[in-house]
Every structure is written in C-alpha cells, then in structure tokens.
Amino acid sequence: MKVKWLYSWLGILVLLVGALGGASPATAAKVPANFAATPLLPKNQLSSKVGYFDLQVTPGATQVLKLAVTNASSSQRTLQVMPVNATTADSGNAVYIPSKRTDPSAQTTFTKMTSGAVTVTLAPHQGKTVTFHTQIPAAGFSGQVLGGLFVTDPHATASTAENGDASDFHLNNRYAEVTAVSLQCQPNQKQRINLQLARVGVHRADSQPTAFARLRNLTPALFGDLQIDARVVQNSTGKQIATQTLSNGSMAPNSWFNDNVNLGNNPLDAGKYTLKLHATSGKRVWNFSGSFVLTRRQSVEHNSLIKSDRQPTYWWIWWLILALLLALLLAIGAYWLGKRRARATDDDDADKDA
User: Fold this and answer.
1) How many CB atoms are closer than 10 A to CB 253?
2) What Pfam family is a match for this entry (predicted)?
3) Host H or E run for residue 307
4) Beta-strand pair 53-56/176-184
C-alpha cells in the first residue's frame, strides 16, 4: 500500500527544487554524468548571488531567457527544455515540475507568457544555448510570477496524473534538472499572505480513504516556514481519532495543495467528522476547521485495510505448542517412573531368590 507512495516521492525528490528556506527559489542539483543547465543571467537580474533567474521585468516588454545546456556524457543526447509553473505538491512544498495544477487566483502564469518547449540534440561533451521569450502583459502584474525551465530527456518515460496533480508525478529511470525563474514588476512591493481553506473531504491516497484539507495561497508570492498541526475529531463522541504534522513547508504563488491526514489505525464508524488545522508561517497564524462525512463504504474500506495491515495473532499456536510440550514431558516422566519402578521390582525379586 505504501510502496507506490515511496517510489513516487523518490522520483519527486530528484526533481524537487522547492525545498525553500522561506523566500527564495532554488535550482535542482546538478547531474554531471548526464547533462547540466546554466542560466545566462541578464542585466535586469536582481541578485547576482543566486543561481537562478531573479528578474525585475517591465510591463509590455519581452524578456529574453537564455539557458546553456551541456551534454557531459560520451554519447549523443537529445534534451527537451520546457517552461513549467511553480506549483505546490501534496507534500506541502513548492515544486517546479510539469503539472496541470493551477489556481484561478493567478493573474498570469509563467507558461502563459513564455514561448514553448525546445528540443536540442547535443554531441558528446557539446554545449548549446537555448533561448525563450517571455511576453510581460502590458498592464504588468502584482507580486511574483514563479516558474522554471525544466530540462529532461524526452526519450525517457514519465507520466503525470490525469488531474495534473504534481504529487503524482512519476520518475522512470530518467534525470531532470530545472532552473527557477522569478519575475517581478515591483520587487519592493509587500504582499500580505492570504491562506484560505477551500474545502475538506475524504479521498483515496496511498490506496486508502484519507481525510484532506485543500489549502490555497491566494497571494502572488512564495512563502515558506509553513507548519501545520492537523487533527480529526469524531463529531458524535468528540474523540480525537488522528493527528498529523507538516514541518518546514512552502507554497508557490497562487497555488493549492491537499494536506492529507491519515485516518489512524482504529476502526471507524460511518458519520460526520471534523478536520481542524492550526497553521503558522513565521508570525502569521491561521486556524481552519471543516466537517466531512465518512460514508459507510469508506468506513468498511478503512476498517478492512487496517485489519489487513495488522499482524495476525498466533497466541493459540503457542498455547498448543506449550500443551504438546507439557504432554510430552508428562509422557517422558511417566515412562521414566515406570521404568524405575520396574527396575526396583526386579531388584526386590532378585534379593528374595537369593
């Protein structure tokens, strides 16, 4: 039940570039045995100390993005470079991977403004420069637009869930690298983080019914240091049945994710439950609460899954073994006593004959 989850997240960890300290995008780790991507930073770069595009852009202008890609291997390689939007995976972290996950609160996105994917063929140890054009809206935009240039081998296979869930991105024997792109029209503009609870409910995660709270970042800004304490309470009894904690999370601008909460290891009745969240990011604090219904089918499924996950008890086998050992010891003891008495009787008879 957990194997699929494990393989999925191993793949994401290779691609994940959103393990953020709180306010800055990061680039993916280099893969020198295959290929490398290096941003050629333009004059409107805000900080020369970071290894990604951190740009102040002008409304109505066309921003040129150049990425140097190098084939470090000893064989020819075909690479695909594609613009991607920064999204938030269900792990509670900002990620830069191909995904259809979007939020309607976004004024615009990196992929809407940027030219399409480019395929480049490189001879062994050859390097080339790939160019993209990003058209900034005439009216500009507020806050931050965040995305990345995602480099991968198109001959390798990968799949994304039909719903575009970044959490379900699978990596199948391939390497990828991404360079983050942060665009701002007014870099000094302050943004008040607006985190909202969209809804709560139950869905299938890791092949079992799981409670979830969909959280939305309605702010055009990346933020980190997200801590969430979640707990599930049974309405009929007021009893707390499950808890879960998210530490050091981050959310991409204008994005959402499902904070999944396992329903625990005890049998549950169908009925109403409440999911309560206490979330913080620095000095910011949010408290959310929402009710959901665990259907009879979901209750039966949950109870059967936790029953199958429990180790079967074999105490009766130990009692049977103990009883057999005791019977064997008694039989040996009786045989030994019988032999001893028979020997004693033979000795008495021998003395009488003498």
Assistant:
1) 29
2) WxLIP_PGBD
3) helix 296-309
4) parallel
Which residue in this structure is represented by tokens 């032999």? 339
Task: Give the CA angle between residues 159, 162, 165 to the nearest 5°.
Answer: 80
Place of tokens 């936790």: 306
Residue 262: name the closest of 286, 297, 234, 230 by CA. Answer: 230
Are the beta carbons of 274 and 233 closer than 8 angstroms? yes
Rounded Cα distance between 256 and 204, Å, is 18
Amino acid making up residue 255? S
The vertex-294 CA angle with 293 and 300, nearest 5°, equals 160
Are the beta carbons of 24 and 32 closer than 8 angstroms? no
* Residue environment code for 33-53, b if the CB has 16+ CB neighbours within 10 A, otherwise e: ebbebbbebeeebeeeebebb
- Cα torsion angle, 101, 104, 108, 114, sign: positive
Contact 184, 56 (CB under 8 A): yes
Q: What is the mean pLDDT of the chain?
A: 84
What are the Cα distances from residue 35, in Å, to 80, 84, 180, 325, 332?
11, 19, 17, 67, 75
Nearest partner of 150 among 166, 136, 135, judged by Cα: 166
Mean pLDDT value of segment 57-73: 96
Residue 176 CA, chain-centre distance (Å), reads 17
What are the pLDDT digits (tens) for 122-139?
999 999 999 999 999 999
- Residue 115 in tokens: 């030219």
Measured between alpha carbons, how far is 116 from 83 in angstroms, rounded to an integer? 7
What values do phi and psi take at 147, rounded to 5? -155, -155
* Domains with residue ranges and CATH for the chain: 3-184 (2.60.40.10), 195-309 (2.60.40.10)
Please, are residues 6 and 137 in contact by the beta-carbon 8 Å criterion? no
Tens-digit pLDDT profile for residues 229-255: 999 999 999 999 999 999 999 999 999
Residue ranges with strand state E in 89-143: 94-95, 118-122, 127-135
Q: Looking at this protein, which amino acid is placed at residue 142?
A: S
H or E element, residue 111? helix 110-113
SS3 at position 282: coil
